[in-house]
Amino acid sequence: xxxxxxxxxxxxxxxxxxxxxxxxxxxxxxxxxxxxQGKVDSTIISIIxxxxxIINKYMQDTLCYTKYDLTKDSPESTIGNFVTDLCxxxxxxxxxxxxxxxxxxxxxxxxxxxxxxxxxxPFENELVTLEINKETFKSLINYIVNQGGExxxxxxxxxxxxxxxxxxxxxxxxDNHFKNNNHITVLTSDYLANGGDNMYFFKEIKxxxxxxxxxxxxxxxxxxxxxxKVTLDNRIQINYE
Amino acid sequence: xxxxxxxxxxxxxGALAITILPSFTITNSKKTKITILHTNDTxxxxxxxxxxxxxxxxxxxQRAAIINNIRKKNQHVLLLDAGDIFQGTPYxxxxxxxxxxxxxxxxKYDAATLGNHDFDNGLYGLAKQLPNxxxxxxxxxxxxxxxxxxxxxxxYKIFNKGGIKIGVFGIGIKLDGLVPKELYGNVLYENPINxxxxxxxxxxxxxxxxxxxxxxxxxxxxxxxxxxxxxxAQQSKYIDLIIGGHTHSFLKEPIKIYNKEKKEVIINQxxxxxxxxxxxxxxxxxxxxxxxxxxxxxxxxxxxKFI
Lengths: 241, 307
What we know:
The complex is a heterodimer of chains A (241) and B (307). Chain A is of the alpha+beta class and 241 residues long. Chain A has helices at residues 2-23, 42-59, 78-88, 114-120, 134-146, 177-180, 190-193, 214-224; strands at residues 26-29, 62-66, 95-97, 110-113, 126-133, 152-153, 156-161, 166-172, 183-189, 207-213, 236-240. Chain A folds into two domains: 2-59, no CATH class; 63-240, Alpha-Beta Complex (5'-nucleotidase,  domain 2). Chain A has eight helices and eleven strands. Chain B has 307 residues and is an alpha/beta fold. Chain B is built from eight helices and 14 strands. The N and C termini of chain B lie far apart (66 Å).
């Protein structure tokens, strides 16, 4: 009887040890190099075809040309400057702010088609203006610096940042603005104005709707241009302490 | 004294027999390989990408061909997606996700979860396209009870492949601050980590699943204190694999994280746009998971090879 008990215990012990060992999964990384024939699936192709035909009627139009790649970067980017600068030309506002996450692709050197603008700005977002006070403006600047830069136009931000604090060294174009005004006009998308991408500080502010889709504004601008001119101008400088 | 010696002798033989036992079962074993194929953030990329770094990569017809090929060579395949199927090309602006769902159905996806962009046309927009999806959407931490999508989704699904029970459940990202309120309406958000642990425990203990997979749209990891796949893995107990999305992270190989019990949890994510197809093989001996192998992300391109 005693022996039997010990055997059971031993069995339990070994099986426990065993399952422990097994459960700590080993993970192997194989360089398989198995070739897969890359023939496209003809059923899928035939399903796609009629949809593509409808889209291509309109999407392959060339709007303009770009000599350079317009890309997403931080703190400043060519794609961000391109979009926010052109928007600020379309509306009566002091500054324009967008978000990196909302500009979905790079635009590479070459002809800019309508399709590329749809891929850059696939959302149905509309432009709005907001009158913001100094406090909200500070929240916005803090947000931009904390994010390591977001696309904007109409000012230059020079800031220092350590782990705890952000110091605004100067905000060119805007520094003097609040001496004479209580408010500043911000152009942005309805998505951000509704507090999207955690821009909660915009949420309660009354929106002036421009009834213009951001994408349509970009397309309109591009179709008036022959060759795009976009530059980086150090509009945001963050010194990390 | 004599009886004691006899006892020791007997127990030694017993112990010997027991140590031999595992190798005996292995010779009599039934090995099963479960192949998990996965995508995330495909973002309406129907055709291969036309420009830039990933020019020529992706494309749903190309992906389908690779999947068919893998299915031919592997008996037990699960094809999963971790959300953000919608939004990114004119196909979505024009057809509102109809084509994406039809093609994924044609490819025989087994399940998907919801990403934040799958709400881009609101709850009605999603509801309208659901009949085109012949696969279930799994989402455990969004409560749709007070919306038009009540009972349209399930928290988990159990797949039986070659005698192995695979429990798959879905987890979504916090919608507030990310998706406009008017688009997600009265969807209630529940804590993703608590909910995951609850479902995973249920799948393990009650449903006796051999493999537990979380389809997550939380995002891989963040600098700030925000729920992510890495946090979920660290705080989990029963999850074996997290298939992630949202952060568009290209991983050369899956990440291993130790959970609460110091067991490994695997996290994998394959960028965006269907540029890569993820493939992870789980090798079972009867019902016991032996090891996991990964051949690298498969770049979806004509003449694709595993790298």
